[in-house]
Fold each of these.
Amino acid sequence: MYDPALQLKRIITIERHILEEQKTYPEATGSLTSLLYDLGLAGKFIANNAARAGLVEILGSTEDYNVQGEEVMKLDRLANETIYRFNDHTGRLAVMASEESADIIPIPEKYPTGKYVLLFDPLDGSSNIAYNTPIGTIFSIYRRISADGPGTLEDCLQPGCNLVAAGYIIYSTSTMMVYSTGRGVHGFTLDPGLGEFLLTHPNICFPVKPKYYSVNQGYEKYWSEGIKRFTSHLQGLEGDEKSLSMRYVGSLVGDFHRNLLSGGVFYYPADSKDPKKPAGKLRLTYEAAPLAFIAEQAGGYASDGARNILDIQPESLHQRTPLFVGNRELVEEAENYLRQYG
Ligand code: AFP
């Protein structure tokens, strides 16, 4: 029988969840809690605009190029601006860095600085905007290294193992925010009627039996022998193993999220396609490290093919890295193939 009291008891908003997590850290000041909440708010704002993109004609190119030389879509700019504006004045951050900006983003002098550092990819997978396929925002939160005053480049160039929290917001059939503060991975679905993120996926772990592998197989001719053999292995062509299904959206958040829930491995290896990008396309700080943190918290693993992504000390803000992420045993198999065949 429908029991409204029981129904209401089951509803856990993201605010309540974050606050309850905060209680487990007696020394917490509430700053991280508010920062995560503000990121959720920015996510709602971006989701709202993404859903109306076609209608309000904000979809389309700004005919501008970002620091990666990629075309900047209008929605990218809006997402970038949204995250910056929601966080520049709160006194929680020392500095920010965005995939869309060449340099670190200082906190305006008129506002106080705080103890955290925010790195973000405002709208990952933006070449998918025009096709109604999933896109996402990825964020990373570190503690500042510098003592006080304006944050520095060094604050932003920390290895993933220093992450305090990381997460993503996926804009798709529904909008979801998935985050971890190092105590498991939790997913919240936006209820569009309430305008609230509600806990729908507590304690997400990679299923033991993986279902999918995700890679842009169109680039096979640019791959090393090790990547080719690893892929044949996943296809069940080496020996009499079962094959995995292949799924690739071309939007990292979409591909990662699906594999997190279904089990599998995503990889964007180093290839010989573009001599200017020998380490592949993905960025260590904005994409690989935060997803590696989520993956580890969900029982998985992320590697650049030879070492744990979380151990890599970034040397520059927009550094690229090969990325293998998903079920631990699949990523370790990738490492073995690369070790053996290069
Ligand atoms: P865009 O933001 O330009 O769409 O790039 C998305 C992305 O950085 C990442 O989300 C995808 O996994 C990857 O690139 C797809 O790259 P390919 O189109 O080369 O497969």
Note: The mean pLDDT is 92.
Amino acid sequence: MPDLTVVKDALKNHQIELPSWAFGNSGTRFKVFGQPGVPRNAFEKAEDAAQVHKYTGVAPAMAVHIPWDKVDDYAALAAHAKSLGIRIGTVNSNVFQDDDYKLGSVCNPDPKVREKALAHLLECVDIMDATGSRDLKLWFADGTNYPGQDDIGARQDRMAQALAAVYERLGPGQRLVLEYKLFEPSFYTTDVPDWGTALAHCQALGPKALVVVDTGHHAPGVNIEFIVTMLLRAGKLGGFDFNSRFYADDDLMVGAADPFQLFRIMAEVVRRGALAPSSGVTFMLDQCHNIEPKIPGEIRSVMNVQEAVAKALLIDAEELAAAQQAGDVLGANAVLMDAYNTDVRPLLADLREETGLPRDPYRAYLASGYGEQIITNRVGGTAAGWGA
Ligand code: RM4
Ligand code: MN
């Protein structure tokens, strides 16, 4: 049995980063169902994120998305977050919502468009300087829809050039993290479709370039924990964008579709000592709450991650190694399944109580009245949303 004090300490130190966009209105290309009380700007999003941290104690950072979270004074935003007991985390760039990007951003055949996209990425690094953020997250919608539409290799050269310029601009302690996604919005080629492509670019750049695994960005059946292991072995896992997918890039709550997959991923993370913040792996959520209430949706997601982490920490590593060495196929599998089938909710509730947190963050938040308060207070202005 793993030492319970070690398990509890690991759980206490584990941190989960929240996406600002999860607090704003979002939807599908069919309809955005607006909700009352949603934040109208990045400052109010930080207030909502702070609520999630208040009740869970493990979510002290909020990632921002530029320009969705554009403000006049980023240092003031960081100070506001600090006053609420959280910090501004990863800065996510957006080079996919401008008419100029119809044929791509940094891979666009037109050098003027490439310059514009690069200028935005560099502006994001300026923002990191002001907010004290470590990571710039890059996700590109770049790709083509038809064979022959553009030169596949030339697009890779343009990508490499832009990445190198961003890399050059990074300050000490700053990193770029590159996200891949197999398809959408382009359907014939995507310029960074998989972890191999992302890794190849990051390896060419150097130690401050790492790969992000968004759990929703894979084809059905892909063994994500294998990818995680490969990236950890290479020292190139920058972080996660957690969510659940039933079909494609659904951005549904992490742990909803396949909690067992989440456990298997976390088992590899724990196995390779990458859980602690000092490992440099960011555990971020990348979700949209289209029909469910947003703050409770984030709290539930944080709890789902914690449950997977707790189960992963409960794997008896010694027993597992012994079974593996002995070639005991079923015995090794049983060690894993014993941990997965443990009900860790009482353990997590006890741990929260010990650290002065409510045993059930979800219910405690609902009972707090904050949800009703924001509906009353946030009248007027334009609700923030990603404009689907
Ligand atoms: C992308 C990707 C990015 C996110 C955008 C909104 O599919 O997952 O991480 O910033 O969506
Ligand atoms: Mn993502």
Note: The first strand starts at residue 17 and ends at 19.
